Amino acid sequence: MSEPAGIAEDDRRGPAASDASPVLQTTGLARSFTQGGETIHVLRGVDLSIRPGEIVALLGPSGSGKSTLLQAVGLLEGGFEGSIRIAGEEAAKLDAHGRTIVRRDQLGFVYQFHHLLPDFNATENVVLPQLVHGATRAVADERAASLLTVLGLGHRLTHRPSQLSGGEQQRVAVARALANRPALVLADEPTGNLDEHTADRVLGEFLRLVREEGSAALIATHNERLATRMDRVVRLHEGVLS
């Protein structure tokens, strides 16, 4: 079975409704650390707003702070200054349990490397986060099969990661990220580990499915060409967003 084709580069939804409340809003987000007695400022007061349904490319060279910004927004690390509001809730000051709840209920993650559980098949990898979220096994199985089929993996439902190609593994990771219908999907170079042809196809499927699901997305990349396929581009340089 051939891989599904990606969307055309001009097949973009366009900006979300301007009157919609932001699904993500950061204000004065900053991060610094000390190395060898020197203070290094990774983020310098980042202000960013993303509306529901909007797909935003976070563009910048390696080392510009893209991953650090995603870790902050994803509530994966502490040590940040400023405000992070997710779906209207101030999340920056939550305790560990509160951050876990927000990640579980509001966020989905796709990384450069798929991080699939090797002993679980494709369906099980997509089912697991739904069970943690409280879904029944029957509902989770149906949702997983639906997402994987849409992504062209209907014939790979019972295959383990080691039996899948790189592009197929990353599609499973996309399905897993969207399994709980997150308000916001965060992706860190999601096709950076794939060849150009496969990256185009996987990104096309990713964008199409995010749009169909109605989620917003912040997608970090250093690839200018891929960034043009998204609704809006913001650039991070020396810790400052433009």
From TrEMBL:
Keyword Nucleotide-binding (UniProt): yes
Location of the region described as Disordered in the Swiss-Prot/TrEMBL record: 1-21
Annotated keywords: ATP-binding, Nucleotide-binding, Transport
Domain ABC transporter, residue spans: 24-242
CDD domains, A to Z: ABC_MJ0796_LolCDE_FtsE
Pfam families, per database record: ABC_tran (PF00005)
SUPFAM superfamilies attached to this UniProt entry: P-loop containing nucleoside triphosphate hydrolases
GO molecular function: ATP binding
SMART domains per UniProt: AAA (SM00382)
InterPro entries: AAA+_ATPase (IPR003593), ABC_transporter-like_ATP-bd (IPR003439), ABC_transporter-like_CS (IPR017871), ABC_transpr_LolD-like (IPR015854), MacB-like_ATP-bd (IPR017911), P-loop_NTPase (IPR027417)
Zinc in keyword set: no
PANTHER family cross-referenced by the UniProt entry: IMPORT ATP-BINDING PROTEIN (PTHR24220), LIPOPROTEIN-RELEASING SYSTEM ATP-BINDING PROTEIN LOLD (PTHR24220:SF689)
Protein family according to the UniProt entry: Belongs to the ABC transporter superfamily.
Name of the protein in its database record: ABC transporter ATP-binding protein
Organism per entry: Sphingomonas cynarae
